[in-house]
Amino acid sequence: MTSVEVPKGRSNCCLPCRDRHIKCITISNEDSCVNCISHSFTCIKDSIQFRHGDNPSVAPARGTGKRQQEFDQGQVWVKPAKNLHWIDDTQELRTTYGHEDDAWTASTRPDAENLRQRLAAEVSSAGRDRPATSHAVISPLPQSTLQSPATSSRASAGPAEVREYSSRGGLRSSEWTRSPPNSDTKPSSIASSYLIIGPNTDSSSFSRWSLQSAQEAYLMQHYVQVIGKFMDVLDPDRHFTFVLPYRAASCPTLQQAIFALSARHLSRIGDFDPYVSDGYSRKVLDAISPMVRESNAINDVDLLCATVVLRLLEELDVSLTGYDNERQLKGVQLLMNAQMSAAIANGGLHQAAICIALHQEVTAALMAQRPTAPFLDLDSAFDRSFAPADDRTWAFRIILHCMDILAFCYGNDTQDKVQSQGEWNRHMEYAKKWDALQPTHFKPMYEEKPPPDSPFPLIYFHRPIQIMSAMHLHVCLILLVSHDPSLQTGYPSAGGGIHNLRRAAQALKEVDERVRYHVRAICGIALCNMHLASAMIMSTAIVKLCGEHFIGEGLQREQDSILEMLELHENKHGWPTQLVQNYLKSIWGCNGAKR
């Protein structure tokens, strides 16, 4: 077989090679080029031509007799600029651009190697400590039960795909094919491929989704239709719903992470086989473990996205482990510190992954009553002012402020009373100012006092991002009210008498009332916007945090309503709330009717 390179000057490069910016090498007596044969692609020849001969400014006299169009003698021609860049800016091509991370490599950060080593350790420990779905040891799954992970690599992949070196010098793997940070291509963009499919052409050979079975299609569909809403609650453009699945088509490990999450969620809300998720999870961890040892893995956006997806899976697995070990969360924290500035600069999916990870960190900190992890470049990456901005900027102003308050409430207590009171005053002033200056459309569409059959008010919002912003504002106020340094003056001293005891009791009563007011508002928002799982998740974290404020006579109705809300949340969204229910029942004792 003789290989013949296409001569210069001929535009005969096939579409698959052109999309991947690689040399198209033809073979004598063959219809397909070498690359398409080795990768089992359909080789489609491209014939794009630029007819400069029709432009008199290029060939004023020579080509006039051969022109296909006729123009007036007085035709005015626009003079082109000296430097032109011809761009075929189709959706298909944009999804194949290489990484633009030259300005953000591991060498630009002095602690990149340390972060990489810590990430490798976290991934390794996650693989060892991850529980099975049941307490018994799970044997290898039969092929009929779990087909997709074993066949997730593209069929008939040749050596070029197994070890392909990128133009940036990084090693690519068939199990981890990197794609660009800004591949914000929606799945609908592949519709253009159907225009060149003939009636006798197998359409599956054109699909870029690389799905191998109906089960994989079902899992991907469930992610897009249901789970994506978990992730994109603070992203108006919904990158993790529209962009991530299409990106995962060229990254099998990211795709398997999506399958693992979808399978686990389906097993939580229905009778889907829970072992399927375990199989995908093992495949993902096995693929990630060698990747995190690469020098440039710490800056890989696909690795960040996969870890964010696995973190949500880890939260769903709390019902199996009995606690949140935060293994994947630690990996997310390491990747965020390495990629924060680059993600904000790149925007798109990269920025969306950072924002989701921040939201996950806040939720975990509330559940554990701890400060959030320290993140680099937060102040430079996000606008913390009150200047006019888009919805996401306004939302993250209050979310980042919530992180500051968590650090104030649960961080190391090294400040004296005067310093603590001053910082508390600054936090309260910021929260009140955000509430006063937030966009008018962030306010509820409708509010009403609690109906007779519920202790929670009716509060409806227009969009998810407004719901979560309002909830975080209430969380900020709950934390500040319950950690007010001035309350210390209301507690009795060692030699205090009955007067101090009464002052302390009155102070605690006022705190309980104020906290319960905000908790009722959060529960009302969650129940009025029950379709939004993230709102129910936030309400779960808050009732666990504030359960002790609902101890006392006359609060049994509210206790029962909170437990009913948690049960509804678990049944509807599959979110594990049983541990929270058990905790609340234990501290409420005989005051809780539901046991």
Automatic annotation (TrEMBL):
Keywords: Nucleus. The keyword Nucleus applies. Residues 122-190 are annotated as: Disordered. The keyword Membrane does not apply. CDD domains: GAL4. GO terms for cellular component: nucleus. InterPro entries: Zn2-C6_fun-type_DNA-bd_sf (IPR036864), Zn2Cys6_DnaBD (IPR001138). GO terms for biological process: positive regulation of transcription by RNA polymerase II. One of its GO terms (molecular function) is DNA-binding transcription factor activity, RNA polymerase II-specific. Residues 141-155, 174-190 have a biased composition (Polar residues). This is Zn(2)-C6 fungal-type domain-containing protein. It comes from Pseudovirgaria hyperparasitica.
